[in-house]
Amino acid sequence: MQFEIIPVTGFQQNCTLVWCDKSKEAAVVDPGGDIDRIQQRADKLGVSIKQIWLTHAHIDHAGGTSALAKALGLSIEGPHQEDDFWIQGLPEQSRMFNFPSCEVFEPSRWLTDGDQVQIGEEVFDVLHCPGHTPGHVVFYHSGEQLALVGDVLFQGSIGRTDFPKGDHKTLISSIRDKLFPLGDDVRFIPGHGPMSTFGQERRSNPFCGDHAGV
Ligand SMILES: [Zn+2]
Ligand SMILES: [Zn+2]
Fold first, then answer.
1. 133 touches 174 (CB < 8 A)
2. Do 16 and 144 meet the contact criterion of CB atoms below 8 Å apart?
3. Which residues of 74-113 are buried (b: 16+ CB within 10 A; e: fewer)?
4. Is residue 175 part of a domain?
5. Tally of structural domains, the chain
């Protein structure tokens, strides 16, 4: 399994290409926009994009989904159905945040806790981690000890919870009860900013670490 982070949109959202070495099949996680750049990177790397995986349906993560899926005939996996109201709101989000106009889409599959997604021979577990949005999911590759956590957790910070149906307590519980038990050594790719490990966040994150209040 290999991956490459491609920051996209004005929010510098971490879109991530993950691919299977053997088959050279790739999934695009959170194509917020700049889909030409994503396709160019895939071409450069010699991988063929087959699927889109979504952690949640905020525009900086999902804004390019409809156009990319149509252009390449891709299946759309996720997020959890609780984020449908965010998908329906994408056209309004695009006007609000000055994004290129963007269409509503229907995921090929809603994801829920315990599901798996697969690209080539690489399998990721799906964890439902609400709090930032109610339908937020995380993709976890146990063999590689790697998680793609979207806007649940960042290096030194956590996701916002002041959006509709956001909830701080729920977010903290998603992090402490679902992500941290995966192990201190697990590396994670957040939706924004640099990578970190769950161990580092347990030690030093002021919002959800072992020494944080809450
Ligand atoms: Zn978000
Ligand atoms: Zn974001």
1. no
2. no
3. bebbbbbebbbebbebbeebbeeeebeebeebebeebbbe
4. yes
5. 1
pLDDT at site 214:
58
Q: Element (H or E) spanning 100, and its range? A: none
C-alpha 14 to ligand 2 mean position (Å): 8
Quote the domain boundaries for residue 79: 2-204
Question: Sign (positive/negative) of CA torsion 195, 196, 198, 203?
Answer: negative
**Alpha carbon of 99 to ligand 2 centroid (Å):** 14
User: Quick one: which ligand is closest to 136's CA?
Assistant: 1
DSSP-derived secondary structure for 21-36: TTT-EEEEE---S-HH
Amino acid present at 140: Y
Q: Residue 214 domain-assigned?
A: no
Whether 18 is covered by a domain: the verdict is yes
Any domain includes 94: yes
Give this prediction's pTM: 0.97
Q: Is 204 exposed, middle or buried (0-12, 13-18, 19+ CB in 10 A)?
A: middle
> How remote is the CA of residue 13 from the centroid of ligand 1, in Å?
9
Residue 68 has pLDDT above 80, yes or no: yes
CA distance 41 to 133: 29
The C-alpha angle 44, 197, 141, rounded to 5 degrees, equals: 60
pLDDT tens for each residue of 148-181: 999 999 999 999 999 999 999 999 999 999 999 9
CATH of the domain at 60: 3.60.15.10
Q: What is the pLDDT of residues 101-119, one digit of tens each?
A: 889 999 999 999 999 999 9
Please report which ligand is nearest the Cα atom of 8.
2
